[in-house]
Structure formats: structure tokens, C-alpha cells
């Protein structure tokens, strides 16, 4: 029964939409900026870097604090830790304060991983996202919107984090949380991921058709 209280407390922590509320205090609706995500990045865009940094820090903290407290209380292994760790991310994505339509869960994810692994997994994830960002901007498609590509990179980065976790021999509870985290992040970014894959596949199909037609034209020229 104790795990239920901890889960709801962690969920409540994640559901606190600090960036949205800070924006409202300065007469800005962060949902009307950028991709409409009520998170720290859009607060930055809507109200400037100072408030944006505060929003990101608070979103990070609402993932870090409940997991740190749960670890301190003795939840160090088993499915209970995985569920409690996933709760702040779920709370952010499905916040009752915004009619269960919350944010994308990136900053709160970093907060949870920081508490769970002593910041190590967060640093690995940040490095992976940086590499993916640079890589995809170099080979990126002209058809894919930058916001869609960002969502795809985040989902792929969290997926690749599992390689580090397995190699570092983290306990099963951490891997279980990773799976829940990946599912939540993928759900939050489902549209950008779908758009990116669809446009890439469409582009590859167009390239294949163009090459086929070009080869046919060359064949006709040689035959003629």
C-alpha cells in the first residue's frame, strides 16, 4: 500500500506545470508558442531566457526530488522503484491541471535519471542527443520540419540510452524504468516520430523512382 502513496506523490510532483504557470504570471500562454508544449523551452521563447531557465530547472526538479526521496526511503530495487520513477514523467504528460494534456517530459526525464543514477545516465543522454542533433542536421531531409526532427531525436536518444544502461550493468529496476520512460517519451513524441519516418520513407521512395526512371531513359538512349 505504501507504494501507492509514493506513486501518487511522485505523479502529483510531475503534474505541477511550473512553466505554464510562470508564463501566465507574465501574461504569456506558452501553449501558443512553438510546438505548443507547456514546457520550459516554450517559456523561454515566450518570456525570455531568465524565466525559461527557471521553468526548465523546476521541471527538472519535479522529476529529481520525488525519486531522490524514494531512494532515501529505501526504494532501491524492484518494480516499485520503476513505477515511482515513471510517475513524475507520467504526471507531466497527463497533468490534471491542464485537463490531462501536459508536456513532452524531457526536462523531468533528465531529473529522474539524475536522481536514479547520480547524474551519469543524464550526461550520457545529453551527449547522445547532442550527437544525434548534429548528425541529423547534416543528413537531414528538406521535407522534415525541425520540430519533428527534434522529437525524433529525443525518442531515439532515450532508446539508445538502454545500450549504456545494459553495458554499465544497472539493476533490473533501472532497466524497467527505462522501458516505461521510453514508452512515455515515444507516446509524447508519437506525431513527430511518425512525421519524420513517413517523410523519410516518402523521400527515399521518390529517389528510388527517380533513379529507376533515369536508368530506363539511359537504356532507351543506348538502345536507340
Short note summarizing the structure:
Helices cover 78% and strands 0% of the residues. The chain is mostly helical and 224 residues long.
Characterization of this structure:
The protein is mainly α and 224 residues long. Helix content is 78%, strand content 0%. Helix 1 runs antiparallel to helix 4, helix 4 packs parallel to helix 6 and helix 7 packs across helix 8. The protein is globular.
Number of strands: 0
Strand content: under 5%
Task: Enumerate how many helices there are, as a single number.
Answer: 10
Q: Give the rounded overall mean pLDDT.
A: 89
Kindly report how far apart the N and C termini lie: 82 Å
Number of folding domains? 1
Radius of gyration: 21 Å
Helix content: over 70%
Biggest sheet statistics: none
User: What class, by secondary structure content?
Assistant: mainly alpha
Shape from CA axes?
globular
What is the H/E order? HHHHHHHHHH
Which blocks of ≥5 consecutive residues have pLDDT under 50? none
Highlighted features:
224 residues; mainly alpha
Secondary-structure map:
Blueprint: H1 2-15, H2 18-25, H3 40-47, H4 49-72, H5 78-93, H6 106-117, H7 120-139, H8 146-167, H9 172-188, H10 190-223
Helix pairs in contact: 1-4, 1-5, 2-3, 2-4, 3-4, 4-5, 4-6, 5-6, 5-9, 6-7, 7-8, 8-9, 8-10
Amino acid at each position: 500500500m505504501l507504494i501507492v502513496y509514493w506513486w501518487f506523490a511522485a505523479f502529483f510532483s510531475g503534474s505541477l506545470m511550473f512553466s505554464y504557470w510562470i508564463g501566465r504570471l507574465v501574461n504569456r500562454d506558452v501553449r501558443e508558442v512553438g510546438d505548443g508544449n507547456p514546457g520550459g523551452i516554450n517559456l523561454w521563447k515566450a518570456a525570455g531566457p531568465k524565466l525559461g531557465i527557471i521553468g526548465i530547472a523546476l521541471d527538472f526538479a519535479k522529476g529529481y526530488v520525488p525519486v531522490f526521496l524514494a531512494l532515501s526511503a529505501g526504494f532501491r530495487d524492484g518494480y516499485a522503484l520503476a513505477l515511482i520513477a515513471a510517475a513524475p514523467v507520467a504526471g507531466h504528460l497527463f497533468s490534471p491541471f491542464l485537463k490531462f494534456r501536459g508536456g513532452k517530459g524531457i526536462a523531468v526525464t533528465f531529473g529522474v535519471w539524475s536522481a536514479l543514477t547520480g547524474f551519469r545516465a543524464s550526461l550520457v543522454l545529453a551527449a547522445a542527443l547532442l550527437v544525434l542533433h548534429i548528425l541529423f542536421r547534416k543528413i537531414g531531409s528538406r521535407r522534415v520540419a525541425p520540430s519533428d526532427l527534434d522529437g525524433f531525436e529525443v525518442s531515439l536518444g532515450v532508446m539508445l540510452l538502454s545500450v549504456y544502461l545494459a553495458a554499465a550493468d544497472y539493476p533490473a529496476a533501472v532497466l524497467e524504468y527505462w522501458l516505461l520512460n521510453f514508452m512515455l517519451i515515444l507516446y509524447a513524441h508519437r506525431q513527430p516520430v511518425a512525421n519524420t519516418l513517413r517523410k523519410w520513407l516518402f523521400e527515399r521512395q521518390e529517389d528510388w523512382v527517380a533513379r529507376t526512371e533515369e536508368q530506363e531513359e539511359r537504356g532507351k538512349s543506348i538502345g536507340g
